[in-house]
Amino acid sequence: MESINLISSTIRRVDHNIIIELEDGTPLFIPKSHQEKLNNFIDHKVQFGIRPEFISLADDTDELNTCNGLLTSLDEYNGAQLLKFKIAKEEVSSRVTDNRITSNYIGKKIRFNFDTFFGHIFEQETQVNITL
């Protein structure tokens, strides 16, 4: 079982929302319920933590919290697929159950969707969870 993904990011304010920006520039919107805790961390480098089961394959109609990742490996595991992909320089894991991805996709870009409600944000230097 894969542990939590830790993805280098920066907290940003866009209009009236707080987002995290991945190193490749992808914005991920943070739920309103978590935003107030992040007001003092605007433009700070952080680690965005999210478990593989909260990263899914994006549907064609998904626009919010999606990013392109370069698929690097695919493993079958107890009826699920463990997909590893790169965003900027980081490898990230996703666990999906729909089995629509085959080994033919390795080396190709795939769109992923992040359920940021289940994410945690850690201050980069201290590793303290600033979303609790």
TrEMBL record:
Q: Which InterPro entries match?
A: Mo/tungstate-bd_C_term_dom, NA-bd_OB-fold
- SUPFAM superfamilies the record matches: MOP-like
Please identify the protein, giving its name as recorded.
Uncharacterized protein
Instruction: Give the organism the record lists.
Output: Photobacterium proteolyticum
